[in-house]
Design goal:
This protein has six helices and eleven strands. By secondary structure, it is an alpha+beta fold. A three-stranded antiparallel sheet has the order 1-4-5. A three-stranded antiparallel sheet has the order 3-2-9, sandwiched between helices. The chain has a three-stranded antiparallel sheet with strand order 6-7-8. A hairpin with a 5-residue loop joins strand 4 and strand 5. The longest helix has 21 residues.
Length: 282
């Protein structure tokens, strides 16, 4: 299901962007998976960073989007809804979906079809933010989303006999009243937290289109040329230049690609608080 969420979000963006009625360009996107709501509920969704334009279909020019506008969210949501429901039906037919507990009856094809019916009629949410001010703001945004976990230490308030108390944001409220505290039994808190532990080896950051790993360098080089932007300066070689003169920084080679690996900083092993010595009586 997470794979469908990634692939169909990227497919929807690329399909609508390639349509001459909207943008008529090949775009790229970086998507980051989030699975939680503020109260640790299961709320899978992806955040995406998309350049403000793309390469023309014949790659001879850069096609910018309109200022402050990328693609129509209503069109995006309708296509995403149709494609997601198509793929989830196919997965059900192929026996790829498993149902547990009170969802066991959805294993039946007719019950599953009935369950999908209202999902075809309600609106699905696609949200598009206005463009960032510049590259630094893009990096700041990505840094907030790429390596977050379901709850940070700063939101934890207390752990006692009642359970775990933490702060959460109620998005249905407005103003200061939307920030509340919630106390869950310890077992329920752990159950909710573990909902967001991803399968081993699962990539929660993925790149598509112009930013896909296979041709990213070539596509970015082409975009820079069409936008008349200079290439970034090459990274300085270790030991080259006045700053490194006389320094002897140990260099290791990556056993996979052979590239040099430099020690940037060394962290000492964490020091644990030692308890007082125990006096044994004989």
């Amino acid at each position: 299901m997470y794979g469908l969420l990634f692939d169909l979000a990227a497919e929807t963006l690329r399909t609508i962007a390639a349509d001459p009625k909207h943008l008529g360009a090949r775009i790229g996107t970086t998507l980051v998976l989030h699975t939680w709501g503020s109260a640790l509920t299961h709320h899978p969704h992806v955040h995406g960073i998309v350049p403000g334009g793309g390469l023309a279909l014949d790659a001879d020019r850069w096609v910018p989007c309109r200022p402050g506008f990328f693609l129509p969210v209503r069109v995006l949501s309708r296509l995403f809804r149709r494609r997601f429901l198509q793929e989830i039906e196919r997965a059900h037919r192929d026996g790829q979906l498993k149902f547990l507990d009170h969802h066991l009856d959805l294993a039946d094809a007719h019950a599953f079809a009935d369950w999908l019916t209202p999902l075809r009629q309600c609106e699905w949410v696609v949200y598009a933010k206005r463009p960032f001010a510049g590259p630094q703001q893009v990096l700041a945004y990505l840094s907030r989303y790429t390596h977050r976990v379901a709850i940070s230490n700063s939101r934890l308030v207390a752990l006692d006999d009642r359970g775990v108390t933490f702060r959460w944001k109620d998005y249905r409220e407005h103003g200061r009243t939307r920030y509340k505290t919630m106390t869950l039994a310890t077992a329920e808190f752990m159950r909710r937290f573990l909902l967001h532990v991803l399968p081993s080896g699962f990539h929660r950051i993925r790149h598509y289109g112009l930013l896909a790993n296979a041709r990213r360098k070539e596509n970015i080089h082409t975009a820079r040329e069409l936008l008349h932007q200079p290439a970034p300066p090459p990274a300085a070689e270790p030991g080259v230049g006045g700053a490194d003169h006389g320094s002897h920084r140990p260099t290791f080679l990556c056993r996979h690609c052979g590239a040099p690996m430099l020690i940037i900083e060394t962290f000492a092993r964490a020091q644990h608080i030692r308890g007082p010595p125990v006096t044994l009586s004989t």
